Write the structure tokens for this entry.
Amino acid sequence: MTKQIRFMETVLRDGQQSQIATRMSTENMLPIIKTMDEAGFHSLEMWGGATFDSCLRFLNEDPWERLRRIRKEVKNTKLQMLLRGQNLLGYKNYADDVVREFVMKSVENGIDIVRVFDALNDTRNLKTAIEACKEAGGHCQTAISYTTSDFHTVDYFVGLAKEMAELGADSICIKDMAGVLTPATGFELVSRIKDSIALPLEVHTHATSGISEMTYLKVAEAGADIIDTAISSFSGGTSQPATESVAIALSGLGFDTGLKMDKLEEIANYFNPIRDHFRNEGVLNPKVKDTEPKTLIYQVPGGMLSNLLSQLTEQGNADKYDEVLAEVPKVRADLGFPPLVTPLSQMVGTQALMNILAGERYKMVPNEIKDYVRGLYGKPPVAIKAAIKEKIIGDETVITQRPADLLAPQLPAFEAEIKQYAKSTEDVLSYAVFPQQAKDFLGRREDPFYDVPLQTVNVKIEIQ
Ligand code: CO
């Protein structure tokens, strides 16, 4: 019996997000979309994550229009997006009415599969998105934010997968945004989850640390149904391993990949000059293609390493890099071992930086960290020690209910605030998720005298 493995192609979302700060425009994508649709992919990841922000902020594009234009061309392949549960695509919790409407409209405009994750693996933050996705007729894939700590055992992750299945997930993804899933653990995790639940299982990793191809081989052997790769032009380093290479290797080992190699070659030939263009413009920093085993040593995502280095360099403190790097795992332990994925990756990084630069731990604490300790992001994987809590929020009480239960409906207020420019519910949702960027985009679109230039500065790397 031939073993099967299917591929999700990430070049339109994670591949370009990880290597060119999500600057690829819809015009860059459209000429090759038909070929991508004919290549035999299980799905194309093309929306959500940082694409939405980038469309509005840098590209002067309506993200909803991108989705509709691509959907029109794609007849055979599923379109997939990445959503951060109750945070949607932003950094804070939204009320249920906004989450519901956003997910419904995503499916209505053409998304087939919504991959939804929570930075803390608090499944209460996934519930509304799962329900809305299913109600809209979409496929809801829940993702486990994979991380390592004494608490994050294989048993824990298997339990989490079961919990997600009970909540109504249509498939499960092991989402290793940092590239720290080893071949050995990957094999064990996939085998155990496949033994425990009957849902399709997908594995997502990054090539940062240099082990991703080995991990994909072992998870394929263990029975993973789908793996995530990026066409060679935007592969390797901080992105996913190369689609063509993994496909050739696995088919040589007897796997049916369903992929058409001549189409993959055409896709790579199309994207190579686009990659070269971004490299010549200085958007693609050659460092993103490097192998960074420090990721495995410090268990810190590659994107976080470069964010910290650029923050320190800007402030003239580049010599403190190693000290800050050593502080990151300590802050993470203090905060109950949150997975280092957006927004927790940025929050933990900033706190580590402040601890070192202030010369005293938790002398300076950003509001986001205070809210996290107050329970407003959800339940930390491990309870935060009383002494740390006391140092950060004094004797304030910590909430134990689902954070979004504290939020009254928000859509009516968003509608009122942006009614001057919004022409559709989609416009209101853009405004809800990225108020300033959406207002500027819609203002430029609707008002010839709206004179706010597009932003061009680089943003921090999102780790997803
Ligand atoms: Co990713």
Summary: Strands lie at 3-4, 6-9, 43-48, 78-83, 113-117, 139-145, 171-175, 201-204, 226-229, 255-256. Residues 261-280 form the longest helix (20 residues). DSSP finds 20 helices and ten strands in the chain.
